């Protein structure tokens, strides 16, 4: 059987490590598609994979999850290339302009909250978000909405009679209910867009299970733990690479008390890879599957209940569908009379300011 696996953000870090592991386990006929925004880096990643697996089928796809037109074009291309999609890893993610609160970090170190702080980064990190050319909040668009649109566009390949497919999100233990607001799903008004987008992916995964399981499509969320990648190096940009290397023994010691310090992309991809081998029907839609590494360096996957509920997940799903239809209307062009009424001042997002899309762009 020719399994088709698509991984977003596959050119580095956890995504690339996952691809390496998928090829190493030797599924015959595996067709891997690396969906990346930077084709030069994508080519480099493909070369690395082909060096260790010269006969592997590794294709590239241009995809910028923060851009609506890129997502629509990429999905069109996937529908042309493949007649099935067995696994869709929703892994691409950003944490732009992170601000590390040193005072809160040191206070946390000497408090009872030290372990949760080190495991989740909650309370010590904020970010400054940007706005995409589509008028969406950048973190929301990249980490969540672009992926949502991709799933919706790939529905015909993902929902096939007599076959199951899996969506696997790279979420985070940094996802926190307090950072998320149904009235501001894009997190325009807060300073934790990363946490909000990851909490939203946890909720969305549950809603996708509610709506798509009967069509054979299953969704799960993972947390790779704390992994040294460009995303985390960027948190302390003043630290040269060698400082991180010097800190490794400290991190190995911390690993003795919190197994969430997976540290390497290979370790971090454990839960993503583990899910590849599971029967999707056996998975818990309320669980986040954590990659963990023991003090002795052994990797394992552990499900932990998420702080999510069906009602909120449904509300988010409805809001995303509304935003999708707004975006589609703009993308495929609105009728002249509609445009005239929008110009008349009511705006396309009547009563839905929180959805905020740059309606001019596609007109
Ligand atoms: N590192 C960690 O400790 C943790 C990471 N995660 C999550 O893991 C995932 C992978 O991150 P990680 O491997 O750490 O970091 P990397 O920065 O190494 O990987 C992120 C990947 O996402 C890609 N990407 C970013 N923006 C876009 C976009 N708009 N369109 C397409 N691709 C994009 C990057 O491409 P490019 O090379 O072009 O930038 C890169 O390939 C993220 O979702 C992150 O939130 C979760 C918990 C912990
Ligand atoms: C300078 C020293 C001694 C330690 C570094 C401390 C922090 C930089 C580090 C501690 C816990 C880390 C962490 C993350 C980022 C880096 C830390 C705050 C994440 C927030 C990265 C992204 C995620 O999604 C989380 C799961 C990580 C949780 C832990």
UniProtKB/TrEMBL annotation:
Keywords: Endoplasmic reticulum, Glycoprotein, Lipid biosynthesis, Lipid metabolism, Membrane, NAD, NADP, Oxidoreductase, Steroid biosynthesis, Transmembrane, Transmembrane helix. Residues 330-363 are annotated as: Disordered. The chain crosses the membrane at residues 235-254. Residues 330-341, 351-363 have a biased composition (Basic and acidic residues). SUPFAM superfamilies: NAD(P)-binding Rossmann-fold domains (SSF51735). Binds to the short form of prolactin receptor. This is 3-keto-steroid reductase/17-beta-hydroxysteroid dehydrogenase 7. The lineage of its organism: Eukaryota, Metazoa, Chordata, Craniata, Vertebrata.
